[in-house]
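Please check what follows.
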Amino acid sequence: MAGGAYLLENHGSSNEPYDPHEGTPPDRPIGPPSPVPAGDDVNWRPNAFGFKASNDHAQQIKGYASATSVGRGESIDFHVSVSPPQKFTIKIFRLGHTADGRASRLMTTSPELAGVTQAPPEVVAATRTVLAPWAASWRLDVPGDWSSGVYVATFENEARFRSVTPFVVRDDRAAADLLVVLPFTTYQAYNMYPWDEKTGSSLYHAWTATGEFGSTAVCSTRVSFDRPYVGDGIPTYFDLDYSFVSWVEAQRYSVSYASGIDLHAGRIDPTRYKALVFPGHDEYWSSEMRSALDAALGKGVSAAFMAANNVYWRIRLDASAAGVEHRQVTCYKQRQDPGARSPQTRTNLWRVIGQPEQSVLGAMYRSVVTDAKPQPLVVDSADHWFWKGTGVRNGERIPNLVAGEADQVWPGQNGPDVTYLAVSPFTGNGKGDKPTRMPAHTVLHQHESGAWVFNAGTFYWNHGLSTPRFADVRIQGATRNLFDRMTGARK
């Protein structure tokens, strides 16, 4: 599925976007990328050795967390349904580099719990919202000495079926070089739970009463965190965040973590950090989130967007029916928004309500990448400090990094003056959905406060950091240059 691709993907311009038309330098030997811990990183996965992934038809074991993040020393509940009823356990893993060179760590295991089959999902007809208002099954009291990080809870029944759900542990008091913000609003926007040909729905698609796969005419306008993620529980595009986390925790930077909802709710103080990093596909932003980013940039805090199609849809975060704040993502998109106080406050594209994301990011979503295989990232501005020490030349092609979706600097749109770090041809949706060659732009600019803003402009940048067969020493080196500059390690 493509983020927002069904709307405005065909916008063109009478002016051509920047394309340097660099020739490709001759091939030369490239050194191997820095190794990233691998170890037992598969242990948390639903299909790890000895386990079978749960599914939404049989619902062998499914669960969700009561919050997208939890502070150190606080508690978080897990709501689990098991079918047929049987004993189960919950394991908590922290993802990322460990001192002994592994890629994840088992932090704790619940007692053996009595599993019950909880009520089937409900649907709120007015907004096509799917809810699983299940009783809590186990409470995790997070120890005060756990490191902030990306965590995964695994739900495992006696029959060895397993599903998972991610959450973040925050450290609200300590400062750090980087604050990595996970895109939980986007995870939920794409969540089609349950995939059962009758009930499931997201902000993109929904099953109809006749079992057909519908889209914008029947999909949700509000989605709830009070339900599991579809299938095995790994959210859509979580691999982008996981690739970044796998790499950054093996680096020299101090790192803390939060969810986008923490940015919305004001639970974190961005000025405690030198840079905010949005590692994945972070498409759904509330006004509060965007205001927090603007304020941080104004105070000299840098921002790195490591994927593409970010800050695209304006949303509201609503309370659950039980009154728990920030448990529902509301976005009416092209439909009439009954909760809007004015045209400028409706839940629609930021660019439609007069605040194009390019004004912050330097570039903005252009198209889905429709090429059958990932395309190369093509280097531009090779003499810029961003590429220092990587040995790249203008026109150099770094393979397999332009895929998924792509951003572009739109001529005639409001936005800062940017440095083009890569200008990468790909095939996308042109006028009338006609396949068209166009450039993806990887850009950098400096805010008037001195803060740096980086936009990778492609989904696959993080795969160039750590994913086997994609990792590249040039991308690793350039990303270190970026974070060194943002954190003050290099002036």
Summary: The first strand starts at residue 52 and ends at 53.
